[in-house]
## 1
Amino acid sequence: MHTYSTHMGQRLMKEPALEYAKSGANPSLSKIEYVRAILQRAEEPISRNALLAVLAKWGHSTNRPSLNAILEFFGDNGMVVEGSKGLIWVPEASPRLLEVIRTGYRL
């Protein structure tokens, strides 16, 4: 037991560098969930300005750096894509679709 705690202690001595949380851009979990809800409910691509407007309308405004951090996190995890007309939520693929993609015919 002592070896385990010593080993874990060494690994935990230095905190990791944060990927998405930055000074001035550290959104709360509730803000992340509100942005996710907006993106999921949007019937067409939505701009960053429109996202900020909906958040403000709901009484949960945020700053642009925090919104950008949320969108960067979603984008890096394959949950949102940004095109010329705005942002689109990418629904999770079903296991059947993933199997077809893996084993299907390639062009």
## 2
Amino acid sequence: MRLMELVRKTQIEKNMSKQEKKNLGNKPKRQKITIGSIVEISIEGLYYVYAQILPKSLYAFFEYRSKEPIVDLSCLTTAPVLFVIPVYDYVITKGIWLKVGKLPIRKDLEILPLEYIYDNTSDKYSTYNCYTGKIVPSTKEDVRGLERAAVWAENHVEDRIRDYYNQVPCLWLKEHYELFPESLPKKISMGANS
């Protein structure tokens, strides 16, 4: 076990900035948001998942989990992406999720996705472009498959990841599931018995 920890520390140090190396061994109180950085997230102490910091406060969360922290981050270069969503800056700057290295941003993540806005009082949809800040009227079909425009807190993201792996609906996506029932996790229904 000790050898694995030493190997992991060496691998992580290769990918770390000077400040991250300075903080190694101590949980940093503050970190800078660095595009391309990989963050490690412990889900209830049961397993680790990883995300990459993208521009515009967006994070790509990978469909990759492990019982132990990973040593070689390159395995994330081919991991499927679960979702891309904005996360509050404090999650990184206050060290809630720790940066463990940095990778080039993959081609499939270079163009940031549109998000949708739903106005339940008028039952109208719009798309939001985070690059330009433009909001464009759209149809339900136009926004199908997009993430809802919202900034996420760390506990809500962790709930969403946990629920994904447990194949249960995420509480924080309730209205999204009502709008797009096909997005419910497989084998799960929102029927009276659930």
## 3
Amino acid sequence: MPTLAAPVPEVLQDQPGTAVLPVETLQVLIGFDDQPAFQRAMRLCVRVFSEFDGGLDVRPVPWNFSYLSLPEWRALAAVDAAAADIVIVSASRVDELPAGVGDWVELCLAAPRTTTGMLVALVGDPADHGPGPTRVRAFLREVAEREGFSFLAP
């Protein structure tokens, strides 16, 4: 496990100096369709980081849907996904995933891994309080369940 040398609050110190605090690393793969969707996913990463008071090293790896539609880029992104603890699919306006992106999600979640992963669906416009794109969420949930991933659609 990586460590981080950090100042220790005086009240916790036996003697002045620093202590080595353990830092967990969380790899987050983000597939997104536009800048607002990317920003939404990054806000989620920042929120997770802040919940752990800096004791968690969140490492986002962004992939735009336009690259994921191309087989050679999709394969590279799948390699990143195999190392990811969390895969976020973030799309602002979508009735269905663009060509190749659904294949990428299936490829990512089917990759062998040593820990249980999580798929997060940030689909639709957060300002729209309607039912949202339920077909895409249903697809993502089905793939997550089939591949043994936890699923979250906040």
## 4
Amino acid sequence: MHTLVDGYNVLYAMPEFHSKSIQRDLETGRKLLAGKLMRYSRVTGGRITLVFDGRGRDLSEEAIGGTMRLAFTPDADEFITETVRTSGAAGTVRVVTSDRELREEVKRLGGSCQGPRSFLGEVKRAIRGSDEDTAEKPSDLGEEEVDGWLKEFGFREDEGKNDDG
């Protein structure tokens, strides 16, 4: 099954995002979420696409490891809907979002939906029960590699280009 994650929707549901050290720092929040989903993807073998609304008119989509992809797109809901529409067989795509309109459209197209809190609980349980459970390993990617990907997608705070908030 292919899981499409409505990035900012899930990010704002993460308790860690609301800690004082991370709150309102979207770049750090994106890294944290991507790291969790990388570990989850490795543990489950599931195919995951983490989708964020991005800047500009163009889609940037890249594999960031294993069966996980990261997509920055002008309209995450449109990207998710189109992916479900073109996925082929009904029931092969799961969308993680709390966006009511998006959930209704995904279900109409034959996909399934899961809320962010439920999904984050699933991720936590899967990681906890695996060798991936380590507080010392916050991300599969090194800091430089994550920064490189964020720069590639135009999300670098130090360059003043992070205007997605």
